[in-house]
Each structure stands twice: as C-alpha cells, then as structure tokens.
User: Fold this.
Amino acid sequence: MAQQVITTLVDDIDGSEASETVVFGLDGKTYEVDLNDDQASDLRDALAPFLGAARKASSGRAAVRRTGSAKPAGDSVAIREWARENGFDVNDRGRVPASVRAAFEEAQRA
Assistant:
C-alpha cells in the first residue's frame, strides 16, 4: 500500500498558506518563521537597512577575538628549522607545539 504525505506550510503571522521558511539570526540565536511571499518580502524589507550596515559572520558560531602574542605564520618556518637543528621532532604542517615555541623563544633571548 502506497502512502502520500502532504505538508502544507502555514504563515506564522496571518495564518494563510506560507510559501517558504525564512531562517534568520539575532543575538546569537537562530530563528525560523514560515511566511507567505508578502510577509517574507516585508521581513526582508524591514531588515534591509540593518543587513546593509552589518558584517557577515563567517560561521554559525560567535566570533573569537584573539589577543596576546600571536605569532605570524612565517615564524613557524623559522621555529621548525631551529627545532630540527636542536633535536626536536616537529611536523611539517600544523601547529607548532607550545613547548617547542617556548624553547625557541628562550633560545632567542639567550
């Protein structure tokens, strides 16, 4: 026996038949609302001034601000070279272990 399931979206604002689900975010939370074409257009028009002035987030998570003494990528090449010359085992790629970086910095101060 075959079965057919039909899903009908209902506009969350006025109860009419909705044509799409609009996904948006605010204050770190993501929302979905089912809207007809007119309501979806109204929402986009209302948000347009804010979207025009906003920066696009790179991902769904909150941005991370890094502070402190971040080392440029070029330093990693010099550190890896020094580490190999001084008996440390380091990979060609990826993060340089903190212990190796600390030893390199100590050697530079001496």
The two ends are 82 Å apart (CA to CA).
